[in-house]
Write a structure and sequence with these properties.
By secondary structure, this protein is α+β, with helices and mostly antiparallel strands. The protein has helices at residues 2-16, 20-23, 30-35, 79-87, 100-105, and strands spanning 40-41, 43-47, 53-57, 60-65, 68-75, 89-94, 123-125, 132-134, 139-151, 154-166, 171-176, 179-184. The strands form three sheets. It has a seven-stranded antiparallel beta sheet with strand order 3-2-6-9-10-5-4. The longest helix is centred in the first third of the chain and has 15 residues, at 2-16.
Length: 190
């Protein structure tokens, strides 16, 4: 009986090990196409200070409630990377339905640099971090940079949440299958 179990476990482990062909796995285009099947919320990350910047991002997640922590992933080649590092803090603006234009604006590299890029949108500086908090979003978080982790061609910024606020909207903006969609937050399970 023990030999059968060991043989079965060995077979399962062999299947889980990557084959030599899989070790050289190239994420393009397969990974991008697969990840398009994962619906995500849409945020605009912001950093204040001398290197102020904003960037549309969906690589954002809650990490811990105690202490309150979130993470965001930013390409090392992105302007936002140095902005967060320089500021030592960042804001997270969770976009509401109907804010596709705001998402597209902060994804466009042709917009102005520095604080001038925020002239086209309504915003308020965060009381704790100075990060621009955009008007009309569903919610805002202000975070102090707690740790930076390596993540391949991205850095994983772990932020300690120092302030939160919620807007009045009920409809969220999500990204799925290469396009924007809206989710009604009032349609909750009974």
């Amino acid at each position: 009986m023990g030999d059968e179990r060991e043989s079965s476990e060995t077979t399962v482990l062999k299947r889980l090990r990557p084959s030599p062909a899989r070790r050289g796995f190239s994420p393009q285009p397969g990974l991008r196409q697969v990840m398009a099947q994962f619906a995500t919320g849409v945020t605009v990350l912001t950093a204040g200070g001398e290197d102020a910047h904003g960037m549309t991002a969906n690589a954002f997640s809650s990490v811990s409630l105690e202490p309150p922590m979130v993470l965001c992933c930013v390409s090392k080649a992105a302007r936002m990377h140095s902005s967060i590092t320089t500021a030592g803090a960042f804001g997270v603006n969770i976009l509401a339905a109907g804010q596709q234009d705001l998402s597209k604006y902060f994804a466009d590299w042709r917009r102005p640099d520095g604080l001038a890029q925020f002239d086209a949108v309504g915003w308020t500086p965060g009381a704790h971090t100075g990060a621009p908090l955009l008007n009309g979003t569903l919610a805002w978080l202000e975070c102090e940079l707690a740790e930076t982790l390596e993540g391949g061609d991205h850095s994983i910024f772990l932020g300690r949440v120092v302030a939160t606020s919620r807007g009045t909207g009920d409809h969220a903006l999500v990204f799925y299958g290469g396009g924007y969609h809206e989710v009604d937050g009032r349609a909750r399970a009974a």
